[in-house]
Amino acid sequence: MDIAELYEMLSRQNKVNILLSDGVESEVSVNLYNVSVKEAIYAVAQAAGYVVERHNKNYIISKSDTAGKTIAGGLKQIRTYKIQYSNIKKIADILENHLSRFGQIDILEERGILVVEDLPEFLDQIEPILLDLDHEPAQILIEARILNITLDDSQDLGVDWSRTFTSNDGKGSFGNNGFAESIVSAAASGAVAGPPGFFFTYMNDKIEVTLTALNKKGKVQALSTPKLLALEHQEAQVIIGERTGYRVTTTINQVTQESVQFIESGVILKVTPSIDRFGRIMMDIHPEVSKTTLKDGIPSLTTTEVSTRLLVQDGQTAFIGGLIRNDLSSDHSGVPLLEDIPIIGALFSKSNDFSSKTETVVIIRPQIIRPEQFSLITDKPQERIERFDQKIDGNAQRIDKFLNNKTKLTWDSLSSKFKSLAKPNATQKGSHK
Protein backbone atom coordinates (compact mmCIF):
# COMPACT_ATOMS: atom_id res chain seq x y z
CA MET A 1 0.00 0.00 0.00
CA ASP A 2 1.27 3.49 -0.78
CA ILE A 3 2.46 5.26 2.39
CA ALA A 4 0.62 8.47 1.42
CA GLU A 5 -2.68 6.65 1.13
CA LEU A 6 -2.10 4.86 4.44
CA TYR A 7 -1.43 8.10 6.30
CA GLU A 8 -4.45 9.76 4.63
CA MET A 9 -6.65 6.94 5.94
CA LEU A 10 -5.24 7.28 9.46
CA SER A 11 -5.74 11.04 9.32
CA ARG A 12 -9.37 10.85 8.26
CA GLN A 13 -10.37 8.07 10.69
CA ASN A 14 -8.69 9.61 13.77
CA LYS A 15 -9.02 13.29 12.85
CA VAL A 16 -5.31 14.08 13.23
CA ASN A 17 -3.05 16.22 11.06
CA ILE A 18 -0.38 14.16 9.25
CA LEU A 19 1.93 16.02 6.87
CA LEU A 20 4.38 14.35 4.43
CA SER A 21 7.59 16.14 3.44
CA ASP A 22 8.96 16.16 -0.09
CA GLY A 23 10.39 12.83 -1.15
CA VAL A 24 8.33 10.71 1.25
CA GLU A 25 6.95 8.03 -1.03
CA SER A 26 7.16 4.27 -0.78
CA GLU A 27 5.09 1.09 -0.57
CA VAL A 28 4.52 -0.42 2.87
CA SER A 29 2.77 -3.52 4.13
CA VAL A 30 1.71 -3.40 7.79
CA ASN A 31 -0.76 -5.11 10.13
CA LEU A 32 -1.36 -3.22 13.38
CA TYR A 33 -3.37 -4.46 16.38
CA ASN A 34 -4.17 -2.83 19.71
CA VAL A 35 -2.12 0.32 19.07
CA SER A 36 -2.98 3.99 19.43
CA VAL A 37 -2.99 6.34 16.47
CA LYS A 38 0.29 7.84 17.65
CA GLU A 39 1.94 4.41 17.86
CA ALA A 40 0.58 3.57 14.39
CA ILE A 41 2.01 6.77 12.87
CA TYR A 42 5.48 6.08 14.33
CA ALA A 43 5.40 2.36 13.41
CA VAL A 44 4.56 3.03 9.76
CA ALA A 45 7.27 5.70 9.47
CA GLN A 46 9.88 3.44 11.03
CA ALA A 47 8.96 0.54 8.76
CA ALA A 48 9.41 2.75 5.71
CA GLY A 49 12.71 4.28 6.93
CA TYR A 50 11.36 7.72 7.80
CA VAL A 51 11.18 9.76 10.98
CA VAL A 52 8.30 11.54 12.72
CA GLU A 53 8.50 15.08 14.09
CA ARG A 54 5.88 16.83 16.26
CA HIS A 55 5.05 20.50 15.91
CA ASN A 56 2.09 21.73 17.93
CA LYS A 57 -0.64 19.14 17.04
CA ASN A 58 0.84 18.13 13.70
CA TYR A 59 2.77 14.97 12.78
CA ILE A 60 5.41 15.62 10.12
CA ILE A 61 6.86 12.62 8.23
CA SER A 62 10.29 13.35 6.71
CA LYS A 63 13.49 11.74 5.56
CA SER A 64 16.20 11.05 8.13
CA ASP A 65 18.67 13.46 6.49
CA THR A 66 16.18 16.32 6.74
CA ALA A 67 14.86 15.52 10.20
CA GLY A 68 14.92 18.56 12.44
CA LYS A 69 15.23 20.93 9.47
CA THR A 70 11.60 20.85 8.41
CA ILE A 71 10.48 23.08 11.27
CA ALA A 72 12.36 25.31 13.72
CA GLY A 73 11.45 23.27 16.79
CA GLY A 74 11.97 19.91 15.15
CA LEU A 75 12.99 16.59 16.61
CA LYS A 76 16.76 17.04 16.37
CA GLN A 77 18.78 19.51 18.42
CA ILE A 78 22.10 21.29 17.82
CA ARG A 79 24.73 21.69 20.52
CA THR A 80 28.27 23.04 20.38
CA TYR A 81 31.21 21.79 22.43
CA LYS A 82 34.59 23.43 23.00
CA ILE A 83 37.51 20.98 22.79
CA GLN A 84 40.40 22.33 24.87
CA TYR A 85 42.90 19.58 25.66
CA SER A 86 42.52 16.81 23.07
CA ASN A 87 42.83 16.33 19.32
CA ILE A 88 39.51 17.56 17.95
CA LYS A 89 39.51 15.19 14.96
CA LYS A 90 40.07 12.13 17.13
CA ILE A 91 37.33 13.26 19.51
CA ALA A 92 34.93 13.67 16.59
CA ASP A 93 35.76 10.18 15.28
CA ILE A 94 34.98 8.66 18.69
CA LEU A 95 31.71 10.56 19.18
CA GLU A 96 30.43 9.57 15.73
CA ASN A 97 30.23 5.99 16.97
CA HIS A 98 27.73 7.08 19.63
CA LEU A 99 25.35 9.13 17.47
CA SER A 100 22.02 7.97 16.10
CA ARG A 101 21.57 7.36 12.41
CA PHE A 102 20.15 10.87 12.17
CA GLY A 103 23.11 12.58 13.87
CA GLN A 104 26.10 14.37 12.40
CA ILE A 105 29.19 16.27 13.59
CA ASP A 106 30.79 19.34 12.02
CA ILE A 107 34.30 20.46 13.03
CA LEU A 108 35.45 24.06 13.35
CA GLU A 109 39.10 23.12 13.70
CA GLU A 110 40.67 26.58 13.93
CA ARG A 111 38.56 27.38 17.02
CA GLY A 112 38.41 23.87 18.47
CA ILE A 113 34.61 23.64 18.35
CA LEU A 114 32.39 20.65 17.58
CA VAL A 115 28.86 21.25 16.25
CA VAL A 116 26.76 18.16 17.01
CA GLU A 117 23.24 17.67 15.66
CA ASP A 118 21.21 14.70 16.84
CA LEU A 119 18.24 13.45 18.82
CA PRO A 120 18.13 14.87 22.37
CA GLU A 121 18.62 11.49 24.07
CA PHE A 122 21.77 10.81 22.03
CA LEU A 123 23.15 14.28 22.76
CA ASP A 124 22.64 13.61 26.46
CA GLN A 125 24.52 10.33 26.02
CA ILE A 126 27.64 11.78 24.39
CA GLU A 127 28.12 14.64 26.88
CA PRO A 128 29.54 12.50 29.73
CA ILE A 129 31.72 10.69 27.19
CA LEU A 130 33.08 14.04 26.02
CA LEU A 131 33.80 15.13 29.60
CA ASP A 132 35.86 11.98 30.17
CA LEU A 133 37.77 12.34 26.89
CA ASP A 134 38.55 16.06 27.09
CA HIS A 135 39.52 16.73 30.69
CA GLU A 136 42.41 18.80 31.99
CA PRO A 137 45.61 16.72 31.86
CA ALA A 138 47.59 16.22 35.03
CA GLN A 139 50.95 17.94 35.43
CA ILE A 140 53.98 16.15 36.84
CA LEU A 141 57.02 17.91 38.28
CA ILE A 142 60.15 15.89 37.52
CA GLU A 143 63.35 16.55 39.45
CA ALA A 144 66.42 14.70 38.23
CA ARG A 145 70.14 14.46 38.83
CA ILE A 146 72.52 12.94 36.30
CA LEU A 147 75.86 12.12 37.94
CA ASN A 148 79.15 10.79 36.62
CA ILE A 149 81.17 8.61 38.99
CA THR A 150 84.87 8.04 38.26
CA LEU A 151 85.87 4.40 38.77
CA ASP A 152 89.25 3.09 39.87
CA ASP A 153 91.07 -0.07 38.78
CA SER A 154 89.20 -2.21 41.31
CA GLN A 155 85.83 -1.17 39.88
CA ASP A 156 86.01 -2.52 36.34
CA LEU A 157 82.35 -3.56 36.58
CA GLY A 158 81.18 -0.35 38.24
CA VAL A 159 80.45 0.69 41.83
CA ASP A 160 79.51 -2.29 44.00
CA TRP A 161 75.96 -1.13 44.78
CA SER A 162 75.15 -4.54 46.25
CA ARG A 163 76.61 -3.22 49.51
CA THR A 164 73.84 -0.64 49.76
CA PHE A 165 70.88 -2.80 48.80
CA THR A 166 69.93 -6.20 47.41
CA SER A 167 67.38 -7.18 44.78
CA ASN A 168 65.06 -8.76 47.36
CA ASP A 169 65.11 -6.21 50.17
CA GLY A 170 61.68 -4.90 49.23
CA LYS A 171 62.98 -1.47 48.18
CA GLY A 172 63.62 -1.94 44.49
CA SER A 173 64.20 -4.32 41.63
CA PHE A 174 66.99 -5.08 39.22
CA GLY A 175 66.86 -4.89 35.44
CA ASN A 176 69.63 -7.30 34.53
CA ASN A 177 71.72 -7.54 31.41
CA GLY A 178 74.00 -10.43 30.46
CA PHE A 179 76.33 -11.58 33.21
CA ALA A 180 74.38 -9.57 35.79
CA GLU A 181 71.88 -12.43 36.00
CA SER A 182 74.51 -14.83 37.29
CA ILE A 183 75.67 -12.18 39.78
CA VAL A 184 72.21 -11.81 41.26
CA SER A 185 71.82 -15.60 41.34
CA ALA A 186 75.10 -15.84 43.23
CA ALA A 187 73.97 -13.23 45.72
CA ALA A 188 70.72 -15.14 46.30
CA SER A 189 72.64 -18.32 47.06
CA GLY A 190 74.81 -16.59 49.67
CA ALA A 191 77.93 -16.17 47.54
CA VAL A 192 79.81 -12.90 47.26
CA ALA A 193 78.26 -10.87 44.46
CA GLY A 194 79.79 -8.05 42.48
CA PRO A 195 78.03 -5.05 40.98
CA PRO A 196 74.75 -6.02 39.26
CA GLY A 197 75.10 -4.23 35.91
CA PHE A 198 72.22 -2.03 34.74
CA PHE A 199 69.51 -1.78 37.38
CA PHE A 200 67.02 0.51 39.04
CA THR A 201 65.84 0.76 42.61
CA TYR A 202 64.10 3.18 44.93
CA MET A 203 66.26 5.83 46.55
CA ASN A 204 67.20 5.29 50.18
CA ASP A 205 69.55 6.70 52.80
CA LYS A 206 72.22 4.08 52.05
CA ILE A 207 72.59 5.30 48.47
CA GLU A 208 72.84 8.91 49.68
CA VAL A 209 75.61 7.90 52.07
CA THR A 210 77.44 6.05 49.29
CA LEU A 211 77.21 9.04 46.94
CA THR A 212 78.38 11.40 49.68
CA ALA A 213 81.38 9.17 50.40
CA LEU A 214 82.29 9.04 46.71
CA ASN A 215 81.90 12.80 46.49
CA LYS A 216 84.34 13.33 49.36
CA LYS A 217 86.87 11.35 47.37
CA GLY A 218 86.36 13.65 44.39
CA LYS A 219 84.79 10.92 42.25
CA VAL A 220 81.35 12.45 41.66
CA GLN A 221 80.60 15.01 38.96
CA ALA A 222 77.12 16.50 38.54
CA LEU A 223 76.42 16.58 34.79
CA SER A 224 72.92 18.02 35.05
CA THR A 225 70.23 18.72 37.66
CA PRO A 226 67.15 19.58 35.57
CA LYS A 227 63.70 20.35 36.91
CA LEU A 228 60.92 19.71 34.37
CA LEU A 229 57.17 20.28 34.39
CA ALA A 230 55.49 17.81 32.03
CA LEU A 231 51.91 17.18 30.99
CA GLU A 232 50.59 13.64 31.30
CA HIS A 233 51.33 11.53 28.19
CA GLN A 234 53.52 14.33 26.75
CA GLU A 235 57.28 14.04 26.38
CA ALA A 236 59.43 16.56 28.24
CA GLN A 237 63.12 16.87 27.47
CA VAL A 238 66.13 18.88 28.50
CA ILE A 239 69.30 19.14 26.40
CA ILE A 240 72.53 20.55 27.80
CA GLY A 241 75.09 20.27 25.03
CA GLU A 242 75.50 21.23 21.41
CA ARG A 243 74.13 20.60 17.95
CA THR A 244 76.88 19.57 15.54
CA GLY A 245 76.17 20.37 11.90
CA TYR A 246 77.32 18.37 8.90
CA ARG A 247 76.70 18.63 5.18
CA VAL A 248 74.47 16.19 3.32
CA THR A 249 74.50 15.98 -0.48
CA THR A 250 71.46 14.56 -2.28
CA THR A 251 71.25 13.84 -6.01
CA ILE A 252 67.87 13.25 -7.66
CA ASN A 253 67.48 13.08 -11.46
CA GLN A 254 70.98 14.53 -11.93
CA VAL A 255 70.09 17.50 -9.72
CA THR A 256 72.37 17.83 -6.71
CA GLN A 257 71.26 19.59 -3.55
CA GLU A 258 73.27 20.26 -0.43
CA SER A 259 71.78 20.72 3.03
CA VAL A 260 72.97 20.92 6.61
CA GLN A 261 71.73 18.50 9.24
CA PHE A 262 72.44 18.51 12.96
CA ILE A 263 73.19 15.89 15.61
CA GLU A 264 72.33 16.68 19.22
CA SER A 265 74.82 15.60 21.85
CA GLY A 266 75.65 16.36 25.45
CA VAL A 267 73.55 15.59 28.51
CA ILE A 268 70.02 14.75 27.33
CA LEU A 269 67.07 13.62 29.42
CA LYS A 270 63.68 12.67 27.92
CA VAL A 271 60.76 11.72 30.16
CA THR A 272 57.14 10.83 29.27
CA PRO A 273 55.01 10.48 32.43
CA SER A 274 51.50 9.08 32.90
CA ILE A 275 49.30 8.40 35.92
CA ASP A 276 47.40 5.18 36.55
CA ARG A 277 44.07 4.83 38.38
CA PHE A 278 45.89 4.19 41.68
CA GLY A 279 47.74 7.51 41.54
CA ARG A 280 51.10 5.94 40.70
CA ILE A 281 53.35 7.47 38.05
CA MET A 282 54.59 5.53 35.03
CA MET A 283 57.63 7.08 33.34
CA ASP A 284 59.32 6.32 30.03
CA ILE A 285 62.87 7.55 30.72
CA HIS A 286 65.71 8.07 28.27
CA PRO A 287 68.89 9.57 29.79
CA GLU A 288 71.83 10.10 27.44
CA VAL A 289 75.39 11.36 27.81
CA SER A 290 76.96 11.70 24.38
CA LYS A 291 79.69 13.44 22.41
CA THR A 292 79.90 14.15 18.67
CA THR A 293 83.10 14.30 16.63
CA LEU A 294 83.59 15.12 12.95
CA LYS A 295 86.23 13.49 10.80
CA ASP A 296 86.40 14.34 7.10
CA GLY A 297 82.89 15.75 7.36
CA ILE A 298 81.44 12.46 8.68
CA PRO A 299 79.89 12.67 12.18
CA SER A 300 80.54 10.08 14.85
CA LEU A 301 78.46 9.86 18.03
CA THR A 302 79.81 8.32 21.23
CA THR A 303 77.01 7.81 23.70
CA THR A 304 76.01 6.27 27.00
CA GLU A 305 72.23 5.94 27.14
CA VAL A 306 69.36 3.77 28.27
CA SER A 307 65.61 3.61 27.60
CA THR A 308 63.48 2.17 30.37
CA ARG A 309 60.04 2.33 31.95
CA LEU A 310 59.51 2.74 35.69
CA LEU A 311 56.46 2.68 37.94
CA VAL A 312 56.82 4.64 41.18
CA GLN A 313 54.60 6.15 43.81
CA ASP A 314 53.83 9.87 43.74
CA GLY A 315 56.88 11.66 45.18
CA GLN A 316 59.06 8.53 45.29
CA THR A 317 62.65 8.79 44.06
CA ALA A 318 64.05 6.23 41.63
CA PHE A 319 67.74 5.45 41.15
CA ILE A 320 69.15 4.14 37.86
CA GLY A 321 72.75 2.92 37.72
CA GLY A 322 75.13 0.55 36.02
CA LEU A 323 75.76 2.63 32.85
CA ILE A 324 79.52 2.12 32.53
CA ARG A 325 81.71 3.82 29.95
CA ASN A 326 85.38 3.30 29.11
CA ASP A 327 87.29 6.17 27.45
CA LEU A 328 90.71 5.61 25.87
CA SER A 329 93.17 8.39 25.08
CA SER A 330 96.87 8.69 24.24
CA ASP A 331 99.58 11.27 24.83
CA HIS A 332 102.87 11.74 22.97
CA SER A 333 105.80 13.96 23.90
CA GLY A 334 109.37 14.15 22.64
CA VAL A 335 112.38 16.27 21.69
CA PRO A 336 111.97 17.76 18.22
CA LEU A 337 114.31 16.35 15.54
CA LEU A 338 115.97 13.94 17.98
CA GLU A 339 112.85 11.80 18.28
CA ASP A 340 112.91 11.25 14.53
CA ILE A 341 116.38 9.64 14.53
CA PRO A 342 116.14 5.94 13.61
CA ILE A 343 116.75 3.38 16.35
CA ILE A 344 117.76 5.84 19.09
CA GLY A 345 114.86 8.23 18.51
CA ALA A 346 112.78 6.29 21.01
CA LEU A 347 115.14 7.47 23.76
CA PHE A 348 114.01 11.04 23.18
CA SER A 349 110.22 10.48 23.05
CA LYS A 350 107.52 8.99 25.18
CA SER A 351 103.97 7.80 24.44
CA ASN A 352 101.36 7.05 27.06
CA ASP A 353 97.95 5.42 26.75
CA PHE A 354 95.30 6.40 29.28
CA SER A 355 92.10 4.61 30.21
CA SER A 356 89.33 6.18 32.28
CA LYS A 357 86.15 4.45 33.35
CA THR A 358 83.01 6.19 34.55
CA GLU A 359 79.59 5.10 35.67
CA THR A 360 76.56 7.27 34.93
CA VAL A 361 73.73 7.22 37.46
CA VAL A 362 70.35 8.93 37.24
CA ILE A 363 68.28 9.97 40.25
CA ILE A 364 64.74 10.99 39.32
CA ARG A 365 61.77 12.02 41.43
CA PRO A 366 58.29 12.66 39.93
CA GLN A 367 55.51 14.44 41.79
CA ILE A 368 51.95 15.16 40.70
CA ILE A 369 51.25 18.89 40.81
CA ARG A 370 47.86 19.81 42.19
CA PRO A 371 46.47 23.38 42.41
CA GLU A 372 47.61 23.76 46.02
CA GLN A 373 51.16 22.67 45.06
CA PHE A 374 51.91 25.17 42.27
CA SER A 375 54.51 26.80 44.53
CA LEU A 376 56.72 23.75 43.97
CA ILE A 377 57.22 24.85 40.37
CA THR A 378 58.93 28.12 41.29
CA ASP A 379 60.49 27.23 44.63
CA LYS A 380 64.21 26.54 44.94
CA PRO A 381 65.39 22.91 44.73
CA GLN A 382 65.18 20.79 47.82
CA GLU A 383 67.71 21.45 50.53
CA ARG A 384 69.17 17.98 50.18
CA ILE A 385 69.89 18.54 46.49
CA GLU A 386 71.38 21.95 47.26
CA ARG A 387 73.66 20.53 49.94
CA PHE A 388 74.79 17.76 47.62
CA ASP A 389 75.59 20.18 44.79
CA GLN A 390 77.39 22.51 47.20
CA LYS A 391 79.54 19.62 48.39
CA ILE A 392 80.47 18.79 44.80
CA ASP A 393 81.37 22.42 44.04
CA GLY A 394 83.31 22.81 47.27
CA ASN A 395 85.21 19.61 46.63
CA ALA A 396 86.16 20.76 43.12
CA GLN A 397 87.47 24.05 44.54
CA ARG A 398 89.58 22.21 47.12
CA ILE A 399 91.05 19.99 44.41
CA ASP A 400 91.94 23.02 42.27
CA LYS A 401 93.50 24.77 45.27
CA PHE A 402 95.52 21.66 46.14
CA LEU A 403 96.81 21.28 42.58
CA ASN A 404 97.75 24.97 42.39
CA ASN A 405 99.63 24.82 45.72
CA LYS A 406 101.39 21.63 44.69
CA THR A 407 102.48 23.16 41.39
CA LYS A 408 103.72 26.29 43.15
CA LEU A 409 105.69 24.30 45.75
CA THR A 410 107.27 22.15 43.07
CA TRP A 411 108.28 25.18 41.03
CA ASP A 412 109.70 27.01 44.10
CA SER A 413 111.79 23.98 45.12
CA LEU A 414 113.16 23.55 41.62
CA SER A 415 114.03 27.23 41.36
CA SER A 416 115.94 27.21 44.65
CA LYS A 417 117.81 24.07 43.62
CA PHE A 418 118.89 25.59 40.30
CA LYS A 419 120.05 28.76 42.07
CA SER A 420 122.13 26.77 44.54
CA LEU A 421 123.81 24.88 41.71
CA ALA A 422 124.50 27.98 39.65
CA LYS A 423 125.94 30.06 42.56
CA PRO A 424 129.34 28.77 43.98
CA ASN A 425 129.90 28.95 47.74
CA ALA A 426 132.56 31.06 49.50
CA THR A 427 135.14 28.21 49.83
CA GLN A 428 135.11 27.59 46.12
CA LYS A 429 135.73 31.25 45.41
CA GLY A 430 138.80 31.32 47.71
CA SER A 431 140.46 28.27 46.17
CA HIS A 432 139.93 29.67 42.71
CA LYS A 433 141.99 32.66 43.57
Blueprint (SSEs and pairs):
Layout: H1 3-14, E1 17-20, H2 37-48, E2 51-55, E3 58-62, E4 77-82, H3 88-96, E5 104-108, E6 113-118, H4 120-133, E7 139-151, E8 172-173, H5 180-188, E9 199-202, H6 205-216, E10 220-224, E11 227-231, E12 236-252, E13 255-275, E14 281-295, E15 298-305, E16 308-312, E17 318-334, E18 349-369, H7 375-378, H8 383-422, H9 426-432
Parallel strand pairs: 1-3
Antiparallel strand pairs: 2-3, 4-6, 5-6, 7-10, 7-11, 7-18, 8-9, 9-17, 12-13, 13-14, 14-15, 14-16, 17-18
Helix pairs in contact: 1-2
Describe this structure in words.
- With 433 residues, the protein is α+β, with helices and mostly antiparallel strands.
- Helices cover 27% and strands 38% of the residues.
- The protein has helices at residues 3-14, 37-48, 88-96, 120-133, 180-188, 205-216, 375-378, 383-422, 426-432; strands at residues 17-20, 51-55, 58-62, 77-82, 104-108, 113-118, 139-151, 172-173, 199-202, 220-224, 227-231, 236-252, 255-275, 281-295, 298-305, 308-312, 318-334, 349-369.
- Strands 7, 8, 9, 10, 11, 17 and 18 form a 7-stranded antiparallel beta sheet that branches. Strands 12, 13, 14, 15 and 16 form a 5-stranded antiparallel beta sheet that branches.
- Strand 2 (51-55) and strand 3 form a beta hairpin.
- The chain is elongated and about 135 Å long.
